[in-house]
Amino acid sequence: MGMQFTVLSSGSTGNATVVQNESATVLVDVGMSAKRMDELFKEREVDPTSIDAIVITHEHSDHIKGLGALARKYDLPVYANEATWGALDKHIGKIADEKKVVMQTGEARDFGTLRVESYGISHDAAEPVGYCFYDGEEKLSLATDLGYMSDKVRDAISDSNVLVLESNHDVEMLRMGRYPWNIKRRILSDVGHLSNEASGEALSQLMTGNTKRTYLAHLSREHNMMDLAKMTVRDVMEDHGIFFKEDEFQLRDTYYDQPTPWDRVGKP
């Protein structure tokens, strides 16, 4: 089987991803209601009682909206760093102490043969993180809500077979959009979100022979479009002299209203 994953939902209305191999299933974030999560689980044939851990990136509502209800319903352990737990508690209701696990930034945990390692990111939350997953030689990295691509983040997610990388907004669409300036300024800041252009710049530096697919994630419904994001990222990469054919490397979509198909990380 190897490692496989599905992005159940991605965007400001809710985020969740399932990663699994033969021995473990891990859920990253619970950004929708427990009812909606159950619908998504059913669509991708995930048995929620088989989930070994929920790991949390940060405490914003589009990442933890259904966390408390889902964890209580299926008696699931939740992993987050200490600062995130401090910010989470008032939002998710009561979770049994034995189900609240502190996993500090930079720490790795093994769930069977599936290894999960967190790394720090720049976002306006208590102590936000991204996650890398390992199964033998296979590596999957989830990198959204970045603010900017720091050297530490780049080092953490380098040499991934598959990346789920933020491509949140088109800068001009955002500048011309209806959001108040204070929100625009926050999105554009180093603790906000990665633009299409910034995503292309980051991917240009991350491309290795190991990297076969990148899913563009956390797209703004107000200030982005799937085709525009992929076109911009591709254009930036070509400006850096990186040209590719579909059988060599693929840019793929994520969705706010439907899950991606299951994808085998080690599959060419």
UniProtKB/TrEMBL annotation:
Designated name of the protein: MBL fold metallo-hydrolase
Phylogenetic classification of the source organism: Bacteria, Bacillati, Bacillota, Bacilli, Bacillales
Role: Counteracts the endogenous Pycsar antiviral defense system. Phosphodiesterase that enables metal-dependent hydrolysis of host cyclic nucleotide Pycsar defense signals such as cCMP and cUMP.
Alphabetical list of InterPro entries matching this protein: Metallo-B-lactamas, RibonucZ/Hydroxyglut_hydro, WalJ/YycJ-like
Superkingdom field: Bacteria
Keyword Magnesium: no
Catalysed transformations (reactions): 3',5'-cyclic CMP + H2O = CMP + H(+); 3',5'-cyclic UMP + H2O = UMP + H(+)
Listed PANTHER family: EXODEOXYRIBONUCLEASE WALJ, METALLO-HYDROLASE YYCJ-RELATED
A Pfam family of this chain: Lactamase_B
Annotated organism of origin: Paenibacillus selenitireducens
Limits of the Metallo-beta-lactamase domain: 13-218
Keyword terms of this UniProt record: Hydrolase
GO molecular function, one term: hydrolase activity
